[in-house]
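Is this the right way to post structure tokens for a design question? Let me know if I should format differently. Anyway, here goes:
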């Protein structure tokens, strides 16, 4: 044992280059950068300034940082690392500096705090927080509203419940009997509940969940109805709307998606998304459901107009591909279609979703691996703009990315009934980031980005209620809160 340790130490000492190749970004940073830039990026050595300023913590500087690290800054005494580090490692270090900057920013700014009367101030609105559901939930993922104001709540282990008023003071029902059995494992479970826009006429409710065949899992969509039964509500009339082929189910517990949205121009069409299930390469394979956004009719059939419907080698429901793990999906008030998705570490994305486009994963991506290892994927030199002429398979780069990652989850648009100054803005949630961010979009670009919630819990979903108040589904605490305008 002692001898083995000795040999390993000797190998480690004798082959510093090999070690550096394999090292995570933390290691790369402490080996190469810390002596001058300090262990937290605070600077001090060799006349360096701090990297931890608000000005430098801006996405637009990524390229400048990359160039500085690769080519050095001969005039200031920063050496070039282009010979010893490859591009993926340099981009990994840019991402790591973002994490150091975020840590410093958070330590300095803290969470948003209310004033003495419980009012939170933001750029365009003041709001209060109301607790809608405080107990009785395991890991809520999604809420949606019935026309009578009641609120459906999907809980990851597989329970669908109904809340009597959808407002503070209402009561949460027992689980609705007869909902499908879910594979509650890893990142899967009951993920989404969506009420059909014509619910008053047809009574359909849609669920997305991870379904098991022989222990393997895949995302499945069903619809069903609610009917009164002795002692509560019952799930009836269930129909399978989307199911992958059994050979496309897999063991892993990663990246199921899933959100469902209806086409605002045609309530008989819906879109949903599935993550790549931890198999990045399959996001590029049109014959596989992994890592795709789908478009289907509300009865599960394929509507006219799907871009790959007439290809033998493609799944006819596919609308766009190259997604990693989308968990936010929304149409904004102008009819633009957006997703947010979990990228690798430092690479969460907001994407404008267009038919037939390739969102790049795992060919190109921002960020680096969660274990700290740089990604092999190159950083694109010139991201194609989403509005470039339509070319099937054209790579579309994110409109916005979060570095560090917020663990993007849940996305909705404010219509403005309650918060008129927010009308049309997108609201993106983040699990690890414990954040809700308001994004104002003009001409497909984010022109304002503001964190309006931080530190209330992991944000699983954000939903604009029919009355325009903003509902936030939290995990840890497992609760539903809402933001209401402060008078
Ligand atoms: C020998 C000291 C030294 C080492 C080692 C060093 N730097 Fe620098 N670095 C500097 C100096 C000096 C500057 C210019 C002054 C400043 O911006 O603080 C600089 C500037 C930078 C900048 C540019 C900031 C801007 O304003 O654009 C970045 C980013 C950076 N360094 C990252 C790194 C990384 C990552 C490493 C490790 C791979 C590294 N540096 C290693 C000394 C060093």
């Amino acid at each position: 044992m002692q001898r083995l340790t000795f040999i390993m130490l000797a190998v480690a000492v004798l082959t510093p280059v090999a070690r550096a190749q394999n090292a995570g970004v933390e290691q790369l940073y402490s080996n190469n950068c810390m002596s001058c830039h300090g262990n937290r990026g605070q600077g001090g050595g060799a006349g360096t300034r701090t990297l931890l300023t608000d000005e430098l913590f801006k996405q637009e500087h990524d390229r400048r940082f990359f160039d500085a690290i690769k080519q050095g800054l001969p005039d200031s005494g920063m050496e070039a690392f282009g010979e010893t580090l490859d591009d993926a490692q340099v981009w990994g270090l840019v991402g790591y500096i973002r994490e150091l900057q975020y840590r410093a920013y958070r330590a300095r700014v803290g969470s948003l705090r209310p004033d003495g009367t419980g009012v939170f101030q933001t750029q365009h609105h003041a709001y209060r927080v109301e607790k809608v559901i405080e107990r009785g939930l395991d890991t809520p993922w999604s809420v949606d509203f019935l026309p009578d104001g009641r609120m459906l709540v999907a809980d990851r282990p597989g329970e669908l419940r109904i809340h009597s008023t959808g407002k503070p003071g209402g009561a949460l029902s027992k689980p609705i009997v007869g909902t499908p059995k879910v594979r509650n494992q890893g990142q899967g479970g009951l993920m989404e509940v969506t009420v059909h826009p014509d619910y008053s006429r047809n009574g359909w409710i849609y669920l997305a969940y991870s379904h098991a065949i022989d222990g393997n899992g895949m995302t499945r969509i069903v619809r069903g109805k609610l009917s009164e039964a002795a002692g509560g509500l019952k799930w009836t009339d269930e129909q399978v709307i989307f199911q992958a082929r059994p050979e496309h189910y897999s063991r892993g517990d990663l990246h199921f998606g899933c959100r469902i949205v209806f086409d605002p121009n045609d309530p008989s069409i819906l879109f949903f998304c599935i993550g790549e299930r931890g198999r990045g390469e399959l996001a590029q394979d049109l014959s596989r459901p992994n890592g795709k956004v789908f478009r289907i009719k509300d009865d599960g059939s394929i509507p006219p107009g799907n871009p790959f419907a007439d290809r033998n080698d493609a799944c006819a429901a596919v609308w766009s591909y190259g997604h990693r793990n989308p968990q936010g999906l929304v149409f904004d008030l102008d009819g633009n279609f957006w997703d947010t998705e979990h990228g690798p570490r430092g690479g969460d994305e907001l994407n404008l979703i267009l038919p037939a486009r390739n969102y790049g994963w795992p060919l190109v991506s921002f960020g680096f691996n969660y274990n700290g290892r740089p990604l092999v994927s190159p950083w694109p030199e010139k991201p194609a703009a989403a509005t470039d002429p339509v070319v099937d398979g054209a790579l579309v780069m994110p409109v916005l990315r979060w570095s560090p990652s917020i663990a993007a989850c849940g996305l909705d648009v404010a219509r403005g009934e309650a918060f008129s100054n927010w009308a049309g803005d997108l609201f993106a949630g983040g699990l690890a980031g414990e954040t809700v961010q308001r994004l104002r979009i003009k001409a497909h670009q984010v022109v304002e980005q503001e964190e309006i919630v931080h530190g209330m819990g992991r944000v699983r979903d954000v939903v604009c209620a029919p009355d325009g108040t903003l509902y936030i589904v939290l995990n840890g605490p497992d609760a539903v809160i809402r933001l209401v305008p402060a008078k």
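Format looks fine. Someone answered above. Worth noting: Residues 32-33, 35-37, 43, 46-49, 56, 64-65, 68-69, 73, 76-79, 81, 93, 97 surround heme C (CB under 6 Å). The CA atoms of residues 416 and 423 lie 4 Å apart.
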